[in-house]
Amino acid sequence: MPYSNNLKVLIVLVGDIAVFYASLTITLIIRYGYAATIWGEHYRIFSLLLILWLAVFYISDLYNLRRNARDIQRLVLSSVIIAFVLSIIFFYIFPTITPKTNLVIDMMIFTLLFAAWRLAMRKLLSSAGYKNVVVIGLNKKTVKIIRTITEHYRNEFRVAAVFTTTRDNTDHTQALGALANDDDSLRITIIAGVKNLAKFIRRHRVGLLIVSQDALFNKDILNGMTHSLSSSLEIMGLPSFYEYTQGKIPLETINQVWFLENITKSSDDVYKMLKRLIDLAGGMVGLAFLAVIFIPVALFIKLDTAGTVIYRQQKIGKDKKPFTVYKLRTMVAYAEAQGAAWTVEHDPRITRIGGFLRKTRIDELPQCWNILRGEMSLVGPRAERPEFHAALAKQIPFFEERYLVKPGLTGWAQLQRNYGSSVADTKEKIEYDLYYLKNKSIALDLSIILKTISLVVLGKGK
C-alpha cells in the first residue's frame, strides 16, 4: 500500500483480532462463567470464523485507512451484517457446535467494540499529521491536483512547493494565486527550476513527490529526482496519485504510452478461470432467486402499467460484439417512443414498481442468463447501447478500451456513480472503468460484489 501504510494497517489488523477475541471472551463469561472446556471448544471454532470475518472486512475496504467517520460507521454495519450471515452458513455447514445464542450475543458486543475501536483509530490517524508534498511542473493538470489536495485531503497532505519547468507559464501561477486568495493558509511556494530540489526535499522532510508527465522530458528534473531518492520519499505520477486517492484515473492525466504500459488485453489464466467460476456460481444463484420471486414480481409489473414483463435491449459487449440483454421492465411501455434517451435521476418514465426493482437491483437479475451464456460477467464496465456508442467514442478518449473485458452486472464505476445521464457523466465513469481495468483482480471483484450486496441490503441502490 502506498505511503508506508503497511505498519498502520498491521496495527489496525491486530486491533481487529483483539476486539474479536475480547468480544468472544465477554460472551463466554456472560454465558458460562469460567468453564475452561467450553471456552477451548469455542475458541477453536471461532478462530476459523475469524479468518472469514477478516476476509469480509478486507473485501469491504475496511483496511482503507483514509475513510472518514461516516464511511467507517457504514462499512462496519454492512460488513458485520455480511459476516453474521456467513457465520450462520458456516455453522450450518460445519455443525460441530451450534452457538445460536452465543453468536447473537457475540455479534452485538463485537459490533459495539469494533465500531468504537475503528472510530478511535480513525481519530488517532487523522491527528498524526500530514505529509509534505512537492509537485514538479506547473500546468493545468497540476493546478487541478493541487486544488484537489487542498479541498479534500488537507489533513493528509500539504503542498510545500511547486517546482516549475521551462514548459510552464504564468497563467497557472495566477491560478495558484487565486487558490491562495480563497484561503491564506494555502499559499504555496513556487520555485523556478529544480537546481535545489534535493536540498528542499531534505530540509522540509518531503514525503511525496508528484511529477507531471511534461516534467519527465526534462533531464535536469530526472537528475534532481534521482539525487533526492530515499527510503522515506514516494514518487508518483499524476495518474497514480488520483488512482490512490480517488479510485479513478482522469483521462487528461494519461496518454497512449500510459495506456499501453498499464492496460493489456491479456489476463492471468488463473484469474480468468476463477472469475468464470464466480460468474457461473453467481449466475445460477441469481436465476434461482429470480425463479422464486418471478411470479409475484411479474404480477406487480403487469398491474402497475401495461407492457411486457421482460424487456430486451441491444448492448455492446466484449470486443464490441453486440448482444441482447434481458431486464425486468421498470419503465412505462412507451418510454422511448421519441428515441433512445439516457436515464436520469428521478426519471418520470420509471414506474412505481420499477423504482423498487431498480433500488433493489432485482430488475437486473434476468441478466444472469447473459452471464451464464458468457456475454457478461458479474463484475465489469456497464454495457453501452449502440445508440450512444458512436457519439461517446468520438468525444471520450479511450472509450472503446472498456470493451477489452466483458460488461458487468455491477462494477467499480456503477458503485461510484449512479446514472450516466450525459457525456460528462459517462467520461467520469470511464475514468473509474480504467481504474478497474488496471487493477482487476479476484479480490477487487469480490469487494465490488460485496459492496453491491451491502448497498442492496441497506436500501441504497439506484
Structural topology:
Layout lengths: L5 H27 L3 H24 L9 H25 L6 H27 L4 E6 L3 H13 L4 E8 L5 H13 L6 E4 L4 H7 L4 E4 L7 H9 L6 E4 H9 L9 H7 L6 H36 L5 E7 L5 E7 L23 H8 L8 H5 L4 E3 L6 H10 L12 E3 L1 H5 L6 H17 L2 H16 L5
Helix pairs in contact: 1-2, 1-4, 2-3, 3-4, 5-6
Summarize the structure in words.
The chain has 462 residues and is α/β, with parallel strands linked by helices. It folds into three domains: 6-126, no CATH class; 131-246, NAD(P)-binding Rossmann-like Domain (Rossmann fold, 3-Layer(aba) Sandwich), CATH 3.40.50.720; 269-457, no CATH class. Helix content is 56%, strand content 10%. It contains 17 helices and nine strands. It has helices spanning 6-32, 36-59, 69-93, 100-126, 140-152, 170-182, 197-203, 219-227, 238-246, 256-262, 269-304, 352-359, 368-372, 386-395, 412-416, 423-439, 442-457, and strands at residues 131-136, 157-164, 189-192, 208-211, 234-237, 310-316, 322-328, 377-379, 408-410. The strands form three sheets. It has a five-stranded parallel sheet. It is flat and about 70 Å long. The model has no long low-confidence stretch (mean pLDDT 84).
Indicate the radius of gyration in whole angstroms. Answer: 26 Å
Annotation field: number of helices? 17
- How many domains, in number, for the residues? 3
Structural class: alpha/beta
Strand content: 5-15%
The helix/strand series, from N terminus to C terminus, equals: HHHHEHEHEHEHEHHHEEHHEHEHHH
Main pleated sheet:
5 strands, parallel
* Termini gap: 31 Å
Helical residue percent? 55-70%
Number of distinct beta strands: 9
**What sort of overall outline do the alpha carbons produce when their principal axes are compared?**
flat
Biggest sheet: strands side by side, in what order?
A: 3-2-1-4-5
Average residue-wise pLDDT: 84
Question: Stretches where pLDDT falls below 50 for ≥5 residues?
Answer: none
